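Predicting holo structure, zinc ion bound.
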Amino acid sequence: MLPIEKLKGSIGRPINLYPLSPVAMTVFALAYIFLTCNETFWSIGAEVFSGHPFSFAGFVAAVFFLMLTLSAPFTFPWTVKPFLIFLILLSAVTSYYMDSLGVVVDRDMIQNVMVTTITESKHLFTIDLVSHVMLFGLVPSVVVACVKIKRFSAVRTIATPILTTALSLALAAGLLMTDLKTYSSVVRERKDYMSSFQPGMPIVGAIRYAKMMMRSANVTVAAIGEDAVKGASYGPGRKPVLTIVVAGETARSQNFSLNGYAVDTNPRLAQLPVTSFHDVTSCGTATATSLPCMFSQFNREDYTFQKGISHQNVLDVFDHAGLHVEWWDNNTGDKGIAARVTQRSLTNTDNAEYCPAGECMDGIFLQQLSDFAETIAQDTVLVLHQIGSHGPTYYLRYPEEAERFAPACRRAEFKNCTSEQITNAYDNTIAYTDAVLAETIEFLTTQHQLSTALIYVSDHGESLGESGLYLHGAPYFMAPEYQTKVPMILWMSPTFKQQFAIDNACLSAKADAPLSQDNLFHSLLGMLDIETDVRNPELDIFETCRNHQKVASN
Ligand SMILES: [Zn+2]
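Done. Tokens:
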């Protein structure tokens, strides 16, 4: 019978394509995923194996047979279709992020997606993504669903998955043995190559994420710095201290004119007596890692999610020392950092004017702050967790009238914007942060009843299309400096400097020194003269810039 007659005869029933065995079906599906969902994997591979086509072919074939080994246990007639449809849909989604935005879907990225809010993540569900998934995921899934599965005897049905596992594993091993030295160094040295493979990395990432969550369930939080007390700077008859810590979002150091950027993104802060530290490295490349890490006592090398959630952080140490601590959030939450202090989340019920699209712009902090400052009677640390420059919808981060650089990209899909428009939109977010920080500082300047200071640090940076990368969250080992160099800006009122006997010139001399978020925990304690064993003076940038004698005589 001709195929067309078969189709005709099947009207009203599933399309009767040629029946395939589960293994053949799996081979076809994997070949499809290799060919259509792995553009980045192929292009990095061509570069890695440049001039060695046979090695390249051998390696890809080995990866293919490894995938077949892992898929073989699902090649029973009743499991093969759901399994292959899952693989195809997953690859279609993750390949969109990898191939069009350079975003690696690994454990940390999955964690980011899981902890992010719906208002924030909705910007990632673009028409582009949906049409990509329809074409590369849904259409082939329908084909898989319609193909008829060949049935065999019970013995053959059970034996085939076992034999396929053994055979494909042997083939993969055999292929890798042909040039083990090259292949093992590629796997070791070129993690960017292996992490671009779909759906390998997302599956490994999901397993690692599940393991991490299981280990962290029912965790107990260990107290730290319970010995903390206010130092000699807190003499009698002084004013209450208000320190604002602005936890920035997605601001990269390179786009701050205070740090040498040619575009004037810091017109307001440039007029104020601030110190901008030019060379500060972040702990991670995404909020879920960087934010808890920067407030923790752990250095980047020691920090793990597990350690972070099982230990108190610098906010708790302030609390132990008797300071009042508040965390105000205009982002996706505190990631557990403020679990034991006063928290509030700013929403459009606080001031709808700043929240036209559901999310609020950071200007919302200002009005709340003026109400709050009037009530302060005790020493206070206030953390403002910004939305900052969070993409891809940069244009939603600032009011239209605050647009300084045009034309700016006003869509969530980067491919509809030129690189100049994307950079303009991003620069507008930095200029808006500049204005928010400057207005906060100007407000603090008027609060003569308080001793005030402000420190701003971003959690991580952002890629704006350099080397084909967008957004952030690249695995740290391969992250460009655009994602890991963050701005850090300090302002102190004259009263504050005098109270804590801080030598501004000494701090300014450190503006070019290599610093990192590792310094933050210890420097915050040092800045506020909190005496505790958990402060490491070597990481405290204020340690050598304080007149200790003057403090004692205060
Ligand atoms: Zn972030």
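Confidence is low (pLDDT under 50) at residues 1-12.
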